[in-house]
Every structure is written in structure tokens, then in C-alpha cells.
Design goal:
Elements lengths: L8 H14 L5 E4 L4 E4 L1 H8 L5 H17 L1
Antiparallel strand pairs: 1-2
Helix pairs in contact: 2-3
Length: 71
């Protein structure tokens, strides 16, 4: 969703601030060379599954990744 804004430092900072406010527990970084946003999948899993700990989210992601590889 970062593609909708122009490629300026101010817009990237604004979007990063917005993501930090809406999803404060999700780590996110902009990689300039690849022109893309990168999110921590474990943090996303923790928020979506309402996991209380990073360990629980990590275990969830591990099981999901294993199931996806089988398909």
C-alpha cells in the first residue's frame, strides 16, 4: 500500500508514523534500494491472532509456514 504515495522522504515518514500509531506493535522499515516496505511477519501474526507473547506468535508462524510448504 506504500505505492500510492510519491517517493519523498516526507511521505515515507508520514506513512511510517501512521503505521506506528495504528499498529504500534508491528515493526516496519522502508528499504530505499528496493523501494518497498518490510513488515515483521511475527509481529503481524501476533496482532492478527491476538497472541500475548512473541513466542506464541513465532510458534504460530512456524506452524503456518510448515503447512504452507506442504501445499
Amino acid at each position: 500500500y506504500a505505492r500510492w504515495c510519491e517517493r519523498t522522504a516526507a511521505n515515507h515518514r508520514l506513512l511510517l508514523d501512521l503505521v506506528s500509531i495504528v499498529f504500534p506493535k508491528i515493526r516496519v522499515v522502508w528499504i530505499e534500494e528496493k523501494e518497498g516496505w518490510y513488515f515483521s511477519i511475527v509481529d503481524v501474526a501476533a496482532v492478527l491472532t491476538e497472541q500475548g507473547t512473541t513466542r506464541g506468535a513465532s510458534n504460530y508462524w512456524k506452524a503456518l509456514k510448515s503447512r504452507l510448504k506442504k501445499d
